[in-house]
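Propose amino acids for all 151 sites.
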């Protein structure tokens, strides 16, 4: 069982709409463990590093404008299969195609306002967690009920 740490962002639309708590609640109650959490303003420089793979695509400038427009909530979530569990809870990129019960399916209508980011794979997760959190902002704490969450 691979223990992973993944980066989640409640994007500016999620914070503006008062959905940060709802989104954190859904992810936290899976049993994934919060090891980092903060409200922050994403600079254009950080946005460029984070979304470098999309540079040059038609939606890129709008994406950087969006993610830097107002604060995001950044979370680092740890646990077995943290990356795929988070992606499943988010739903697919287009809210119109995201399943009911997913965050994007339940709260979104437009691909350009899809509420949440979650790392796509292990190498992205490592890179993105360290882009958004310094090592002293990541707390590796023991959960007293761990045995009721993982075998
Ligand atoms: N995006 C967009 N228009 C598109 C494709 C992507 O606005 O046609 C934005 C959207 O916010 C998406 C982000 O760019 O979440 C990153 O795109 P990606 O394909 O990596 O989707 P994700 O991994 O977030 O599901
Ligand atoms: Mg992606």
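Proposal:
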């Amino acid at each position: 069982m691979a223990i992973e740490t993944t980066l989640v962002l409640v994007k500016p639309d999620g914070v503006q709409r008062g959905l940060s708590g709802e989104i954190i609640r859904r992810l936290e109650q899976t049993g994934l463990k919060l090891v980092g959490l903060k409200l922050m303003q994403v600079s254009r420089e950080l946005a460029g590093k984070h979304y470098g793979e999309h540079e040059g695509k038609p939606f890129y400038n709008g994406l950087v404008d969006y993610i830097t427009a107002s604060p995001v909530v950044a979370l680092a979530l740890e646990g077995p299969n943290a990356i795929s569990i988070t992606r499943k809870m988010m739903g697919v990129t287009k809210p119109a195609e995201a399943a009911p019960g997913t965050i994007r399916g339940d709260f979104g209508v437009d691909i350009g306002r899809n509420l949440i980011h979650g790392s796509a794979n292990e190498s992205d997760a490592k890179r993105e967690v360290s882009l958004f959190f310094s090592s002293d902002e990541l707390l590796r704490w023991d959960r007293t009920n761990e045995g009721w969450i993982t075998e």
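The mean pLDDT is 98. The chain has one domain: 3-138.
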